[in-house]
């Protein structure tokens, strides 16, 4: 995935959902890619686009990493063997990366926020951002910077015409 979270997805990547609010509420410093341990009905539901990342977060528990509050809606065709929409899901990463993340979350006060969920070569992946929360003033500054950049871009495009 791209660092900025914008632009087109690379070849072989099918984006299911992005958490647009995450980059507004948090200052993302690093991003990681993790696999997801899912059931069959969850994969089918993801392929149908039935997903919400709005309140989701990840947290280390022991030597493992888990995704919480990620809502994957029920798959209607799998009525008998369905899944719980809000269950905690295990994230698959290398142990060294999990340890690095765990230290940052526990000692430095960072938060792990899912930025996007996508299929990469048939495997479900989630892009996690190691982030610090923004204060209200910081959000205002980010909006002001974005607006001034837009105005400068508009002025430059008018000048080129």
TrEMBL record:
SUPFAM superfamilies per UniProt: Small protein B (SmpB)
Entry's Gene Ontology molecular function annotations: RNA binding
Cellular localisation: Cytoplasm
Keywords: Cytoplasm, RNA-binding
InterPro entries given in the database record: SmpB (IPR023620), SsrA-bd_prot (IPR000037), SsrA-bd_prot_CS (IPR020081)
Main location: cytoplasm
Family stated for the protein in its record: Belongs to the SmpB family.
Name of the protein: SsrA-binding protein
Biological source species: Anaeromyxobacter diazotrophicus
